[in-house]
Design a protein that fits this description.
The chain is 42% helix and 15% strand. By secondary structure, it is of the alpha/beta class. It has 2 domains: 3-47 and 276-368, Aspartate Aminotransferase, domain 1; 64-273, Aspartate Aminotransferase, domain 2 (3-Layer(aba) Sandwich). The strands form 3 sheets. The protein has a 7-stranded mixed beta sheet, with helices on both faces. Strands 9-10-13-12 form a 4-stranded antiparallel beta sheet. Strands 1-11 form a two-stranded parallel ribbon. Helix 4 runs parallel beside helix 11 (262-271), helix 5 (94-106) runs parallel beside helix 6 and helix 12 (275-299) runs parallel beside helix 14.
Length: 371
């Protein structure tokens, strides 16, 4: 081992880097394809509202200036939307940007962070980067978080429990009653509950509890939201959290000073006013999702219930199928990226993208002799 290798942190030695969905350009270059469909990153495929596009273009005229490090206008717009104080809002470069800095703001040496698995891999990465020990609790056979298991794994060293709700990659959510029980218990133990609601806007089920409502009740949870999913701003990297003021104050000390660009801040402010757009995207996503589920069931594929803009299927030889789809120009997400063998996650795209996926899947399954 060289002295340069010894410089790197020991706690990161066994940590696997995040595996993002393959970019379209990379697949085109590697495989020589001109027409590629990406259904791997849970993006919103529909065009942005005109007002949001105009806000981006206007902000582009001012790129020689640094963006507002305090995100003054965006924090106030978020606060107005949710009925909280701007002092209870933190803004960052997507969910990951917020989470990395939030963990740096709260983690001390020896602290533990508990979360169910499989889930969004950034929880493990950001907690470990801050120096925490990660305690992972496997999902139940029903693919739901084991609430009792999460509670049992909490100790005097536990600083936070992280819950993706609805969960990525399963698409399922913890019910209102279970979430209230968990949050009340954690509050009694002075453990922070962090709820990542990246896909909350897609959920209309009455059993789902909006985390901001929970924040208003308890005032001791942190709720993560993003503009990368239903708002369609994934390329601009804007996320936020609603959290108790002491956490926001500590976060402000360690956050990336200019973490969100001019265009990102402007677009997010404009996007918050587009409630009709959000409803329209939700309705179109659900309609396409139902069509996709029907088509998959017709093929004989096992499809799990979902409340998000993606579908999880359980199928043998999942990695081989993903590789074969990739060679045909269709990018989906292998469950193995989440440590979830024999599963594939498929984002809901435009009608023509979804139809191409189904046709290509039929072709691949026949070729592999699976169906």
């Amino acid at each position: 081992m060289t002295w340069l290798e010894r410089l790197t942190r020991k706690s990161l030695k066994e940590l696997e880097a995040y595996r993002p969905g393959k970019p379209i350009g990379e697949v085109q270059r590697e495989l020589g394809l001109s027409d590629v469909v990406r259904l791997s990153s849970n993006e919103n495929p529909w065009p942005l509202p005109e007002s949001v596009r105009e806000a981006i273009l206007k902000a582009a005229l001012d790129v020689s200036r640094y963006p507002d490090p305090a995100a003054y206008h965006l924090r106030r717009a978020i606060a107005r939307k949710w009925g909280v104080s701007p002092q209870e809002v933190m803004v960052g470069a997507g969910t990951e940007g917020v989470l990395y800095s939030l963990f740096q703001a709260i983690i001390d040496e020896g602290d533990e962070v508990v979360f169910p698995i499989p889930t969004y891999p950034l929880y493990r990465l950001s907690a470990t980067a801050a120096g925490a020990t990660c305690i992972e609790v496997p999902l139940g056979e029903d693919l739901m978080p084991n609430i009792e298991g999460l509670v049992d794994k909490c100790s005097s060293k536990t600083k936070a429990v992280v819950l993706c709700n609805p969960n990525n990659p399963t698409g399922l959510f913890v019910s209102k009653n279970d979430l209230i029980k968990l949050s009340s218990y954690l509050e009694s133990k002075q453990i922070l509950l962090i709820i990542d609601e990246a896909y909350a806007e897609y959920v209309s089920d009455p059993l789902y509890l909006n985390g901001v409502d929970l924040f208003r009740q308890l005032g001791s949870v942190a709720i993560l939201r993003t503009f990368s999913k239903i708002y369609g701003l994934a390329g601009l990297r804007v996320g936020y959290a609603i959290a108790p003021k002491p956490l926001v104050d500590s976060y402000t000390k360690v956050r990336r000073v200019f973490g969100v660009t001019q265009a990102g801040l402007a677009a997010a402010v404009a996007a918050l006013d587009q409630e009709n757009y959000i409803i329209d995207v939700r309705n179109k996503t659900i309609a396409e999702r139902e069509n996709m589920i029907k088509s998959l069931k017709d093929i004989g594929v096992r499809v799990h219930q979902t409340f998000t803009n993606f579908i999880l299927i359980n199928i043998d030889n999942a990695d081989d199928i993903c590789d074969a789809l990739l060679k045909e120009g269709v990018i989906v997400r292998p469950g193995s990226d989440f440590g979830f063998k024999n599963y594939i996650r498929i984002t809901i795209g435009l009608r023509e993208e979804n139809e191409r996926f189904i046709l290509t899947l039929r072709k691949v399954l026949r070729r592999l002799g699976i169906r």
